[in-house]
Amino acid sequence: MMITEDLAIVKELFSILDQGIVDGYDAFQYEVKVGEGWVETQLTAERNGVEITDVETDFNNAVIFKLVKQLRQSGAQRGDHWTAFTLSYRRGDQVRTFFSYGPDSSPDPQV
Questions:
Q1: How far apart are the first and last CA of the chain?
Q2: 4-105: what fold?
Q3: Is residue 87 helix, strand or coil?
Q4: Is the pLDDT confidence value at 1 over 80?
Q5: Positive/negative CA dihedral, 10, 22, 60, 43
Q6: Stated pTM of the model
Q7: Could you give the 3-state DSSP secondary structure of residue 81?
Q8: Distances (CA, A) of 40 to 36, 60, 64, 65, 93
Q9: Three-state SS across 22-79?
Q10: Taking 70 as the threshold, does the pLDDT of residue 15 lie above it?
Q11: C-alpha closest to that of 17 among 30, 4, 26, 5
Q12: How far is Cα 52 from Cα 72, in angstroms, rounded to an integer?
């Protein structure tokens, strides 16, 4: 269950991503995995039907990580202990978020 504070954080994350994808996009997906002392992210964009994984960006990752930490702490205060989330958007559609829970969200130790 997202509350008003969470929604404000997600809107801020979306705004940073939306403005920070240098070459524009038709859709994007931002995946975040969080553990004790680490954050792993993957941004994938789609432009003209082509998926791009090495997206050129112009945003400060430290700001994003701070917002992710705030979002996680907000959830934890309600007993909502997610380990990963995905924020996705396609032009003309609504912003979607999906939260994951559990060990299958942990990073691959080979990475």
A1: 31
A2: 3.30.500
A3: strand
A4: no
A5: positive
A6: 0.86
A7: coil
A8: 11, 15, 11, 9, 26
A9: CCCCCEEEEEEEEECCEEEEEEEEEECCEEECCCCECCCHHHHHHHHHHHHHHHHHCC
A10: yes
A11: 30
A12: 28
Q: Would you call 14 exposed, middle or buried from its count of C-beta atoms within 10 A (0-12, 13-18, 19+)?
A: middle
Contact 91, 27 (CB under 8 A): yes
Residues 21-78 pLDDT 10s: 999 999 999 999 998 888 899 999 999 999 999 999 999 999 999 999 999 999 999 8
Q: How is residue 93 written in tokens?
A: 């559609």
Domain boundaries, the chain: 4-105
Partners of 14 in the β-ladder: none
Coil, strand, or helix at residue 90?
strand
CB 28 within 8 A of CB 16: no
Residue type, 95: V
Spatial separation of the C-alpha atoms in residues 83 and 32, rounded to whole Å? 8
